[in-house]
Amino acid sequence: MAEQGGTGQEAEGAVRGVPGTRGEGFTGPGEEVAEAWAELVATARRTVADGLVVGTSGNVSVRVGDTVLVTPSGVPYDRLTPADVTGVDLEGRQVLGTLVPTSELPLHLAVYRTTGARAVVHTHAVHATAVSTLVDELPAIHYMTAALGGPVRVAAYATYGTLELAGNALRALDGRTGCLMRNHGTLTHGAGLDQAYDRTAQLEWMCRVWLTASSVPGLAPALLSREQLAEAGERLRGYGQRG
Question: Is pLDDT of 29 > 70?
Answer without folding.
Answer: no
